[in-house]
Amino acid sequence: MTYSAILFDCDGVLLDSEPQGCEALARAISAAGRPMDRDEATRLFSGNGRAASLAWMKAAGLHAEAVFRHADDILFAMFDQSIPLVPGIEKVLWDFDLPMAVCSNSMIGRLQSSIMRTPLAARFGHHVYSAEHVARAKPAPDLALFAADRLGIRPDQAIFIDDNPQGILCARAAGCLAVGFIGPTEHRLDHARTLAAAGADHVVHGMGEFHQLLSELSLPRFEKLA
User: What domains, with CATH codes, occur in the chain?
Assistant: First the structure.
């Protein structure tokens, strides 16, 4: 099989920002009267779209929209201080010569405050896609199908990398090659097994392993200047 594009989740794959996002949610929910630490927020919300997170907050009796806005305020303040990149991501992005897109369950505003403020944004151009661009967030296949269409390829020509089972389910439903990613700050127990159970065709630990996988798949490389 010849692959023609790579689709990336954002938080936890491009940016090592999943801990920041879960910390912001934990603080906002705690401030609203329901004590929560980052570990619990990670278990409940990692990989979720906005609708799923809001539904949990409403079920918990919270003013969901207000809590979400507070969490965004906390998170964006964190981004003003630091937007950590996943180690090794720049080598992956600039070694392989094929189209790439971001496929994130995050809202457009969060992507504008995070990935679009980093040097990585130049690699994606306008191919940065949010759950707001489609009818259904991950785990539905909509984001992968939308990105593939915008890139002008068939979904089965795309490699989709995500650190959450929602993304793996999205990739599989769309027909992409699904790669589960274990990042440097991942601490969910047996998460590699969770990604494999969701249907990941490969599970890689760190961008070094992902780079090696892409090399084994014989993806085209940018020519290096002598």
Answer: 5-16+85-216 (3.40.50.1000), 18-81 (1.10.150)
